[in-house]
Structure formats: C-alpha cells, structure tokens
Amino acid sequence: MADVGGSGAATPVGEMPEFVHLRVHSAYSLLEGALPLKKILAKAAGDSQPAIAIADTNNLFVALEFSQKAMDEGLQPIIGCQVSIDMEDGGEGEKRGPQQALAKLPSIVLLAATEQGYERLVDLVSRAYLGGEGNHAVHIAASWLDEIGTEGMIALTGSLTGPVDMALKEGHAPQALSRLLALKRLFGDRLYIELQRHGTYDRRHEQKMIAMAYEHEIPLVATNEAFFPTRDDYDAHDALMA
C-alpha cells in the first residue's frame, strides 16, 4: 500500500489544486451508502483525482478489493474507516450498553498512511467488534489508541458528528477543548480539524472550530462525506435511509 501524501509540487498559477475525497462511503457502509466500488473509482478517475479514500462506517470490508482496483485505475488508494469512539470522558451515550444507548457516540475518521498504520487500523476495527458483549454497539475506546499506538495513522476530527464538534454544539466548550487536546496528544501533527459545508452548516460554529485550530496549531481540512455520486442520486439515497 502506498504511503499517503502528495507530490509536494507547487500548483501552477491559474490551475485548480488537486482535490482528494477523504471520506467516501461505499455500499459496505451498511444502511448508509449504496455506492458500488466500480462507480466510486470511475467517478474519481473521470474527475482526474490523483487519489481517493474510502472510509466506511466501522468496517474495512472493501479495503483489499479497493486497494487492488484503485491502482488498476491509476488512483492512489487511501484506506480509512469512520469509527464510532467513546472518548471516556463522561460524554452523553458513552457508557457501554445496548445499541440504542450508544446511538449518540461521536465518530472520527482514521486513515492508514503506512503499512504499520493499516495494521493498527485493522487491530482497532477488529477489537471494536470483539470488545463488546451481546448487542453492544460497535465502537472503539480512546484508551485503545494509547494501547495500540497511532503511528502510521492520520486522524480527522469527524466534523459535526465528531467528538469535538458535538461537545461544542451542545454547549460544552471545556469538554470540546479537552477532547481536541486528547486527540492532539494521541496523533500529534497527524491530527486535522475537519470542516464541512453541507447539511446543517453553521458559520458561527465553523468559526469557533477554526479559532481552536489556530490557537492550538492544528491544521484544517475540508471534506465532503460522499454517499452518492451526483445530486440526481439523492432520492435513491434518501429512500435507503428512510
């Protein structure tokens, strides 16, 4: 698997910088996404994207097939996963219990930047399935990141469904900062504050996140959580989610 990273070459004046989707959901994001891998790769190649990341929800089912077929299309595959996370700080929904009791768990996106990072991501996702009992929701705990290690992985804060954003939106600014600093301690300069401008876009909230990023020297990344290829496919996706 190729390391995550750009060429470092400057973008010529007048040309658009290369754009890479960092959290595409395939049909393996069960009851969320319906995009076949073939369509994802064709769309990315058609848009001349140099790379693409698939970050399905709490699973890596598509990882092997994605890696092989993306390279066949001349795309750099970035293997990721959107993982539900218990920050273990007393936040709402963070006590282990039945599936419905954990419905409000936040999520972050983890991207494998190296082979070692991929192995750690596999360990985390496997433990997420094996660590609970009965009908407990699939999720990781923040302490597991300390135990397994994070070298070789990049973390995105999860935007509006992430632990930092959710705490801030609920009026818990000290908890939001504490969570951000906990993630920074775990990932260092491999942590990115994620911004999205779709759905329930809130400019005031975005400005608060940007201010935190500047104050604590954490880079920003703009993402789009892609579940379908074009706006014409929205109705089909909406029917899936109903």
TrEMBL record:
One of the GO BP terms on file: DNA replication
Pfam families: PHP
InterPro entries: DnaE2/DnaE/PolC (IPR004805), PHP_dom (IPR004013), Pol/His_phosphatase_N (IPR003141), Pol/histidinol_Pase-like (IPR016195)
Residue stretches making up the Polymerase/histidinol phosphatase N-terminal domain: 20-87
GO molecular function, one term: 3'-5' exonuclease activity
Protein name: Polymerase/histidinol phosphatase N-terminal domain-containing protein
